[in-house]
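USER:
Working in pairs, take the chain set out below, taking as long as you need, and write a paragraph about the fold.
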Amino acid sequence: MGLANYTCVTEFFLLGLTDLTKLQVTLFVFFLMLYIINLLGNFSIMVITIMDPNLHTPMYFFLWNLSFLDICFSSVTVPKMLIDLMTPEKTISFTGCISQIHFLHFLGSTEVMLLTAMSYDRYVAIGNPLRYSNIMNTRVCRYLALSSWMTGFFHSLLQTVMTAKLPFCGPNLVKHFFCDIKPVLQLACTDTSLNLKLLTRFAGTIATTTLLLTLLSYISISKYLVKIKTAEGRKRAFSTCSAHLTVVFLLFGTVIFTYSRPSTQDSLDEDRAAAVLFTVITPTLNPIIYTLRNKDMKKSMKKFVKNLQFRLAFKKIASCIS
């Protein structure tokens, strides 16, 4: 049976973050600033890692992928949220809602997988530095990245198809500021227990398994950190690992909190608050964390800024002469 034959609802109304007009303006300015910082920060990392030959290593290959993911992930929900904060009619089409669900879970699942791959990269770099370039060669890096993207895509495809095939005949008020599976399932005109079980088991399993693998990598890394003789060497290794761990706990904590619990009215309100963290805050903090805690990245950024200033000055002088 086709989807159009049993889906009466053609659009959904989003509850949004708040009904208070003054607070909506404040939130709009705040989240717009965070989104701009997110775009500028992550795009800068992408450009610098490509332009600086010294950063053509597995670690920065994964960081490039992470920055690209953060831009896409936040762009799934934040632009629509900003528009809704300034308009009274917070509507989204049925197709737009299902698309938002798909890309949110596709990119989110890919990111947790990628963070696990990055922890393995750090484990090899610190635990086996002499064979690092052989183990983490170009083929392996591409395989790990592609596996992350493919796993995220098929997990999301399952959840999206299962949600899209449900009958929706009203009401159509989504108690969230974007379309996510749990609040949308509450609007279905049929039993959704199977959908909720699949969501909890698949999303929960991916999040907890990847978190355990990441922690296992860092437990092994800690053993090698103790063996590093120089204080500078330990500080450098710890700085890189601590940046990655900070990102891991920020993202994994909110994802597990959101998708590993049963769906209730109270949990949906809590999920909305947690969603702000993993869709807005974390993607903005990632480039800040990785640049402030990474000497190589800070050095490359300073070099990039100086070269940019030199080029602008050169163009200005050339235009004056001409």
